């Protein structure tokens, strides 16, 4: 959220409403963003965010008109900031998906070397982020991209004067800012944030339903036996 640099009462588009995107929307609301727009395609995630007051664009229905819809919601300017909370797991880009699948069929050692040297991410979410951000806006990337041959639209990035900010969460850096929000008032809805509470031995099942986006799995908390 800090990387996104949302101006006071500004607008933000959040790509993806998994646990990171969902919480980003809540933090943006808490910090006074004037317009919060999210982009998602999983029905349970869409409904959950709408209940929290977020404008959600259903990518299943509106992908082709996504930039147009964002401009309509931001007085024709585009979003001041975009948070890409999806990364290389994004849908789209059939060729990149094929290459990822083919890499997965190789022996582990060979697959690792191929991915590190010639990996191609599915960049659909990042491309959408570039499309919907306003000129001079900021894109904050928390979704992980790790391919070495990703084609980036450098001309568009340059022409729109877009700032790209990314990296892993520096958790210790933000502890003092986060802790005051974790009170009995539950300002961010943390107490009810998890959709599943499962036993630790159910971890394989948990990862499976989260990856497949089944059973409304958004955030899963493991409960070790005896606690």
Shape: globular
Strand numbers in spatial order across the main sheet: 3-2-1-4-5-6
Low-confidence segments, ≥5 residues, pLDDT <50?
114-118
Q: Percent range for helical residues?
A: 25-40%
Q: List the domain count as a whole number.
A: 2
Count of runs of 4 or more consecutive helical residues? 10
**Strand percentage, roughly?**
15-25%
- Mind telling me the CATH class of the largest domain? Alpha Beta
Largest sheet: 6 strands, parallel
Backbone CA Rg: 18 Å
Task: Report how far apart the termini are.
Answer: 33 Å
The CATH superfamily of the largest domain is identified as NAD(P)-binding Rossmann-like Domain
Summary, kept brief:
The chain is built from ten helices and eight strands. It has two domains: 11-189, 3-Layer(aba) Sandwich (Rossmann fold); 194-227, no CATH class.
Describe this structure as you would to a colleague.
- With 227 residues, the protein is an alpha/beta fold.
- Helices cover 39% and strands 19% of the residues.
- The protein contains ten helices and eight strands.
- The protein starts with 10 loop residues before the first strand and ends with a strand.
What is the topological layout?
Layout: E1 11-15, H1 19-30, E2 35-40, H2 43-51, E3 55-58, H3 59-62, H4 66-73, E4 79-84, H5 94-104, H6 108-118, H7 124-132, E5 133-141, H8 154-159, E6 163-166, H9 171-178, E7 196-199, H10 203-212, E8 220-223
Parallel strand pairs: 1-2, 1-4, 2-3, 4-5, 5-6, 7-8
């Amino acid at each position: 959220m800090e990387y996104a640099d949302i101006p006071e009462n500004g607008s933000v588009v959040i790509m993806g409403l998994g646990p990171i995107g969902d919480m980003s929307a809540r933090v943006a609301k808490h910090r006074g963003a004037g317009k919060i727009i999210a982009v998602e395609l999983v029905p349970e995630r869409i409904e959950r965010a709408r209940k929290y007051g977020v404008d959600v664009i259903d990518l299943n229905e509106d992908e082709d008109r996504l930039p147009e819809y964002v401009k309509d919601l931001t007085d024709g300017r585009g979003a001041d900031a975009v948070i890409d909370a999806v990364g290389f797991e994004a849908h789209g880009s059939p060729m990149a998906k094929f290459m990822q699948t083919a890499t997965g069929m190789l022996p582990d050692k060979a697959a690792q070397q191929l991915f590190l040297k010639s990996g191609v991410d599915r960049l659909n979410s990042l491309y959408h982020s570039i499309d919907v951000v306003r000129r001079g806006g900021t894109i904050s990337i928390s979704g992980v991209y790790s391919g070495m041959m990703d084609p980036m639209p450098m001309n568009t990035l340059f022409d729109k004067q877009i700032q790209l900010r990314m990296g892993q969460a520096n958790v210790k850096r933000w502890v003092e800012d986060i802790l005051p929000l974790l009170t009995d008032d539950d300002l961010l809805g943390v107490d009810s944030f998890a959709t599943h509470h499962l036993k630790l031995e159910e971890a394989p099942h948990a990862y499976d339903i989260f990856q497949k986006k089944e059973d409304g799995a958004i955030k899963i908390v493991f409960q070790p036996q005896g606690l």
